[in-house]
Amino acid sequence: MTDRTEPSSAACSSAGYSSLGASPADPSAEPVTYRAALTRALDDAMAADAGVVVIGEDVAGGAGAAAQGGTGGAFGVTAGLYDRFGAERVIDTPIAESAMLSMAAGAAATGLRPVVDLMFADFAHVAADPLVNHIAQAGALFGDAPGQAGHLPLVIRAAFGAGDRSGAQHSQPLHGALLRLPAIRLALPATPADAYALLTHAIACAEPVVVLEHKRLYDTTGPLAGDALPWGRARVVRAGRDATLLAVAGQVAPALDAAERLSGHGIEVEVVDPRTLNPLDLGTLTASLARTGRLAITDEDRCAAEIVAGRLAETAFALLQAPPCLICPAPGPVPFAPGLEDAWAPDAPRIAEALRRLCTDG
Amino acid sequence: MTDRTEPSSAACSSAGYSSLGASPADPSAEPVTYRAALTRALDDAMAADAGVVVIGEDVAGGAGAAAQGGTGGAFGVTAGLYDRFGAERVIDTPIAESAMLSMAAGAAATGLRPVVDLMFADFAHVAADPLVNHIAQAGALFGDAPGQAGHLPLVIRAAFGAGDRSGAQHSQPLHGALLRLPAIRLALPATPADAYALLTHAIACAEPVVVLEHKRLYDTTGPLAGDALPWGRARVVRAGRDATLLAVAGQVAPALDAAERLSGHGIEVEVVDPRTLNPLDLGTLTASLARTGRLAITDEDRCAAEIVAGRLAETAFALLQAPPCLICPAPGPVPFAPGLEDAWAPDAPRIAEALRRLCTDG
Amino acid sequence: MPAPTSQPTPGSDQTPAPNDWTDACARAAWAGLVRCRRFEDAVMDAWRAGDIPGVVHVATGQEATAVGAALALAPGDMVTSTHRGHGHALALGTDPTALMAELMGRRTGLVAGRGGSKHLSDPERGLLATNAIVGASVPLAAGAALSAKTRQTGGVALAFTGDGATNQGAVFEAMVMAVALALPLIILVENNGYAQTTASAYASGGQSLAARARGFGLAADTVDGSRVDLVWSAVSRAADRARLGLGPSFIEAAVGRLEGFFSLDAQAYRGADEVARLRAAACPLARFRAKARGGLDDATLAAIETDQADAVDAALAAARAAPPAGP
Amino acid sequence: MPAPTSQPTPGSDQTPAPNDWTDACARAAWAGLVRCRRFEDAVMDAWRAGDIPGVVHVATGQEATAVGAALALAPGDMVTSTHRGHGHALALGTDPTALMAELMGRRTGLVAGRGGSKHLSDPERGLLATNAIVGASVPLAAGAALSAKTRQTGGVALAFTGDGATNQGAVFEAMVMAVALALPLIILVENNGYAQTTASAYASGGQSLAARARGFGLAADTVDGSRVDLVWSAVSRAADRARLGLGPSFIEAAVGRLEGFFSLDAQAYRGADEVARLRAAACPLARFRAKARGGLDDATLAAIETDQADAVDAALAAARAAPPAGP
Ligand SMILES: Cc1ncc(C[n+]2csc(CCOP(=O)(O)OP(=O)(O)O)c2C)c(N)n1
Ligand SMILES: Cc1ncc(C[n+]2csc(CCOP(=O)(O)OP(=O)(O)O)c2C)c(N)n1
Ligand SMILES: [Mg+2]
Ligand SMILES: [Mg+2]
């Protein structure tokens, strides 16, 4: 049964939406799901700016014409938007992601603010050309001021992450691949409050932004408004003096758990949630490393962790008293079977063990 | 005029091929171009194994049916192969790279050894899905023994690199993106001898291999046979005691130049050409760092350099006496204008200056 | 929204079984149909019971395309498939125990539990691989076709794909490629009217998928995909063409999806009556009884059905008893 | 290799100019044609002289598609283009000095020397961007079309693309998308018979590109692309449809490529007579004189030609004198 609660159904996502809709007066008062926070961000942005459109497969849903609110996308995040904003602004597409992203770029350069729902992040690879060869380049080539072809206020949302038995082609992280495209901003919210805040900022932003949503987080709950950190600022989720643990997206929860376990054994780990990887908040990380002297990174994307480790080695070498410790999955696709998949992304015990070694042998 | 010599024409590439053809008896005796070395590797492999086929746009050339030897692809590397092996093994395709790569994978799993000519590495992004979602995964999912669907003895050749005024979408490096796909081997020959040796190995290899050819190297010359280092072994191109400079592909020559410049000033730089980035020869690098204590990397792909720096920080931290020094282009697309493009990839003076600072302030 | 044009309807074809549809064909077909149906029903039950992790995409109602195509192919031919591939594997002869064990994430699974429902492979039986990126099955099969052509094995390759998937660039590119290179490729589209919740007629702008393929130069046919005999005949013709070097074919088979898109689908986007109507009009098993049974009497059909049910039940039990895949 | 079917031929159409082709149209068209031709000739000379770095893809012989389309569009409409885009920019009104300076890598270039020949953009004149990834111009234009539709500006978007490019998945996906969303999009394929050295008929399996597009549900036409008046008329019709909300159109224009694929092309793959034949039969300037000049006499044409030549020569001189782009 546990395997079934994680992937979202149309039913539970609509429920998530309506429960949010029931208390619009004080959105921060009661806890909402990560999914509902994303929906709210879309809803608010669309209400505020007629140029914001949502594009994707089944984002309206319902045989292409949205029966009673539609399904709201594979994860239910866009549920209800069709009823409120109509087919001209909640646009169901054929399964043609390459054209979808390229079209979004063309639309962004000519007056719209498209928010593309890519569904699973793995599907970005059928649409890599517009991402790499156009969206990541047009600003520098053509100028990014309004009216210029490189002005691309567009958002791409995509879900990733192990843990829902989706298999190899519906689970892979994407952020390692995107980090090589400096022109594309990159947010990975780990809480409902950040889901709302980062997606809201992304839609308002003049530059292209990819928002990566961890599948395991959709049903987690929390307040809609958090301590309002600005875009680009990392959050110190837990203070500590012995090591700095950068934990990305789905890894924040097991990282905190690991830190608590170690706390009982005299090791205090500072856990940092980067919130955005582009920009990467080197300031907060460096300040933390100045206190702790030890760097660990836990991330489902080993390549992203290596890039961040490389950057910190380059810029904060003098602060490091030990080699950076990467707590990441072994190479290879995300496996299907629960026993294999659960052993893939490092869990709290594995993270704790790696940190213990870092802080004692290191 | 200098701008014109670098991009290869059909004419000069055929010339390259015929001059090679003129002395088949002792291939290592006289210098050949990098281009001719690649041609020779293809020619030898096709002669030795009827399963080797070449697939790409204009690889035969000549209106799809190869007029007198055809053009041999955009860089002339496959010139002459059509005449020798015919249309069944030198296969001109429509401009459909995604189908091309996926087809190559299907063919490799069922008895052929395809060598795909992707032309410019930038075009890999229209074909990223078969690369990332299939070729990089099938071995682990389905097994990679002969007869299994993940047995993918295929080679993808692609050209990259700044310096030939090709502009933003015909110059980008690809290896940073490929490093996140551990199942895909990755070779970047910097000399004619390595072009021959690495491509030959790649075709014989049971696993998928990408061979990235730097455009500025096609017309460089050298012996066909070098000091036969095995696949996966990095080459110490120049010994030194003060710093280890890892120089990738087109950066090897300016790196050597920079090292010579510094030699006059009492700084001896060890220049290492990795030859393959997957596998990455951590042994040779670590041994070098044990001597020098300082790491510099010069690479047109900053992301690749960051990944390598991250890995070395993780595995060889104790050997480093200074922060890794990445000598790479500033973020952004490769610009067109000569003055801009020549300032993009670090040249010998910039490399030398960075090394001088590393070895004196570091 | 443009109205659908010339899209075939499952359950509509009233032509008699082809002349060369022998009782041996019918016997094999019936065994395949009931095996596939029983298996998918067992999958849904096992999923509901919590024995199958994640979600599954069953092919209930789409048995005739799997079985008809498999019957028309020869040893050495290669098949690729999609996220909805259980039936294709079974029809080709994949061991039901290994398949069920894969869906359950067992060590004895077809690919040792690494893949799950969407990532199957059984090349010895002609199933090269299934693929969860929609459309990707088609160019992959083009590769097997290229191999057969280059190595002159006389083999063909067949790609199963869906109506939604045929809007992917990779599928169109594969068509262009197959025509330019005259590949022995068969593209068999199971048009079940939907891609997730999106109607095929909407996504494809009401165009006939077969007519689109014809524009690319493929020999293109539509077929009532609820009729195993007609599918068999269409695939046989396409395979003959391919073996003669006449190039690729495209078959648009109209099928009825009798379950949801996947096991979690509440199907609010289609009326309950649609499924009832499809079950009545387009169930491949009923259609077989009505149109393709040849000389087989009820007792024979019942005996085959019992055999197959036993085999699936045994597979289910064996898979359940197998150890979970683990690190 | 299948024989080409229903692919149009440049220079073959003998119909008279359309009725609404006024002398004002003819005057503007002639100015555009000679400006484009003179410019591309100047580009080849400058390239040979070493003043233009890298390689260039000139559109000599393809002037009528650029000029005819630009004449048919309205302010606010958006155009995307390819690696062979100088003429498209000029026809839309891009300053020839800025364009030449871009090709020469000057600081005063259209995009400050960052892009070069293949990366142009001049949105104020309706040129959104050119793209060096073949096919990519088409879905990008679909985006501009979506914007026009959503914001109800009454605008249309036109994508220039090539015959080779129309085999890219992105182009097919854009067609599917444009039909499903009824986008005000015009796809104008300049079929010059070749993609690099590969014949269009080989790569597209001898299929008509227009017929392929029709299969997707686009209104699709073929046109003699050496006739500026007929291109104008075809694009005007397509734009009218688009503005009325009737959805996307596809125009396959047969053109003759009078130079090589790019400036380094030795053209061993086609006989020298082919170019001579095209120059005689399918040169848009000659075809204009014969078919589309309306009431304009030789003196008028000569005067316009002199003006345009002067403008291009001045642009060349100004670009040469401009400072190189540098760090
Ligand atoms: C490239 C890509 N985009 C989107 C998806 C998500 N997805 C999985 S199945 C599916 C619908 C496929 O429809 P169809 O091809 O008709 O097959 P059916 O499910 O009806 O059998 C979608 C959109 C995917 N797997 N791959
Ligand atoms: C995706 C991609 N593949 C290959 C190329 C290399 N390339 C540049 S132009 C060209 C031929 C294009 O032919 P066509 O579309 O007919 O345009 P033409 O050059 O004839 O104007 C090719 C293959 C490219 N730029 N992009
Ligand atoms: Mg379907
Ligand atoms: Mg062409």
Automatic annotation (TrEMBL), chains A, B:
Which controlled-vocabulary keywords does the entry list?
A: Oxidoreductase, Pyruvate, Thiamine pyrophosphate
User: Which InterPro entries does the record cross-reference, listed alphabetically?
Assistant: THDP-binding, Transketo_C/PFOR_II, Transketolase-like_Pyr-bd, Transketolase_C
Would the keyword Nucleotide-binding be found if you checked this record's keyword annotation?
A: no
Task: Give one GO term, molecular function aspect.
Answer: oxidoreductase activity
Q: Where is the composition biased (Low complexity)?
A: 7-25
Please list the residue ranges annotated as the Transketolase-like pyrimidine-binding domain: 32-220
What highest taxon heads this organism's lineage? Bacteria
The protein's required cofactors: thiamine diphosphate
Give the region (Disordered) as residue ranges. Answer: 1-28
Which protein is depicted? Pyruvate dehydrogenase E1 component beta subunit
Organism listed in the record: Rhodothalassium salexigens DSM 2132
From TrEMBL, chains C, D:
A GO molecular function for this record?
A: pyruvate dehydrogenase (acetyl-transferring) activity
Question: What is one process in the GO biological process aspect for this record?
Answer: pyruvate decarboxylation to acetyl-CoA
Entry annotated with the keyword Oxidoreductase: yes
Q: Which InterPro entries match?
A: DH_E1, PDH_E1_Alpha_Subunit, THDP-binding
Reaction(s) this enzyme catalyzes, per UniProt? N(6)-[(R)-lipoyl]-L-lysyl-[protein] + pyruvate + H(+) = N(6)-[(R)-S(8)-acetyldihydrolipoyl]-L-lysyl-[protein] + CO2
Polar residues bias (residue ranges): 8-17
Q: What is this protein called?
A: Pyruvate dehydrogenase E1 component alpha subunit
Q: Which organism is it from?
A: Rhodothalassium salexigens DSM 2132
